[in-house]
């Protein structure tokens, strides 16, 4: 689901100028790398904060009965398939753009899309006083994210092999979701556990790319890809915990 970030940059004076002035993070100076990492993870944090603010606004504006109808709607699973497909496509396309305005527009729109997608589930959990489950999902997600990030930055391991694994896993997971929707079968707990592993692998791969494959000016695109992976991880951690009324005691 990614492409070579240096491909297509050899046509036109603008692209030549861009490639000349912006080198890969792996070959930049220590101060340039530090600035790139700071900007990338700041944008991820701001995207998460924006997601929380949008969720809060939606919860205050939309009446409870509408939340219940949304949560019980039979098309919610189709929406899940659609947002995974559309979100993955948009995140990949926008993160490759050379235009900063396009990148910021893409990041903002994707945050809004994720907030709308999560809203019925989070809204129902809040109304049923299951907020401890939400907090547990947040803590687990952040812990996994921190651990994965540390592994990549503290080692020199090559995780590029994960690209093929993630492509195959992505198509397989989408196929299972579609089959479950069409035949009325719940994909089950083990599927959610598998998707947590898939999302963790995606974060591992994206962090490796942040360290080795991005240029110093691609921090918005890097943040967009990383935010998308974090939200998939959060969604499936939340789905696992929601199977237990009060989460992990």
UniProtKB/TrEMBL annotation:
Keywords: Membrane, Transmembrane, Transmembrane helix. The keyword Membrane applies. The chain crosses the membrane at residues 41-59, 71-91, 103-127, 133-153, 165-183, 189-207, 219-238. GO terms for cellular component: plasma membrane. Pfam families: Bax1-I. InterPro entries: Bax_inhibitor_1-related (IPR006214). It is found in: Membrane. The keyword Transmembrane applies. Its main location: membrane. It comes from the Bacteria. It is a multi-pass membrane protein. Belongs to the BI1 family. This is Permease.
